[in-house]
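Hey, quick one: can you model this chain's 3D structure?
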Amino acid sequence: MSDEVLAQLRAQNRLLKLCLAATAVVAGAVALTGASDRKGNAEFTEITVERINVVNADGSRALVLANGERLPAPVINGHEVESDRGRKPGMLFYNDEGDEVGGLIYAGKSGEDGHGSGGVHLSMDRYGGDQQLALYHHEHGGHMETGLSIYDRGLEKEYGPLYEALSRLPPGPEREALAAKWREAGGQQTQRLFVGRTPGISPRWSLPTSRGARAS
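Sure thing. Here's the predicted structure for all 216 residues.
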């Protein structure tokens, strides 16, 4: 056997040993973390993460805890929908079908005027729709509102397609007529009850009228 062939065999042998060693390291890491067994148990004194997904046995979401960059968009009827909650950290809850049913979000920082800006918002959603109840504290520009609100809104499967069609229409009578149907389907969220402190200086409770104006 030539020296060249022997050299190639020795090189292949060294490569095989490296592969076996790497496999052993990976297997050891899997065993230590329990990653090979999805139902394995692990204990930690402290853990630092950007997002935690709590899932059901079938892998669907049950709860998500995440920073502002990784918090998921709302999910209604199995698909993500637009939201104005922005990039805020928080915790979201999901029903058995994977739709969001509420959550807790929060934020806070000092503005250029020196006043605090942000708040905390805990909401509970209806099945197939948006939030129905919210407990919150908001402040901006030296003004704040703290209280509990009960809302009324329809089902997304009924007003969602109307909103998509509405967004494609130019201003005019046809758009106005479709907007009226969207409101009749519950597309416009209406506040039915507020109890708390308004941006003014006094505590109050109010029962908004059918047009959404507060009557206390």
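One thing worth noting: The chain is about 25% helix and 35% strand.
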